[in-house]
Design brief:
With 97 residues, this protein is of the alpha/beta class. It is built from three helices and three strands. It has a three-stranded parallel beta sheet with strand order 2-1-3, with helices on both faces.
Length: 97
Amino acid sequence: MSKRSALATFLALTLAGPVGAAEPLRIGLAAPLSGPDAGFGQGTRLGAEQAVAEINRAGGVMGRKLQLVVQDDAADPKQAVAVARKFAGSGVRFVIG
């Protein structure tokens, strides 16, 4: 099984819920987009955007598109907590980063 297939299967099992099929599955990305580690965070963001685009081009997960929600945690623990709370409050069900 390819990494992409494994990710799609994992997401399907993890994120499937009672939401209608037309609504995208929201995936959060918490990364340092500012500060001294911004280069790492920008690379992570670009990689995640590419992966989401490829999965969506292939039909998404169980017919649902993915939507990447990106937040800057600035590699700061306090900011990371605020980002996690934003994700939880906005219906993001899976977070990477």
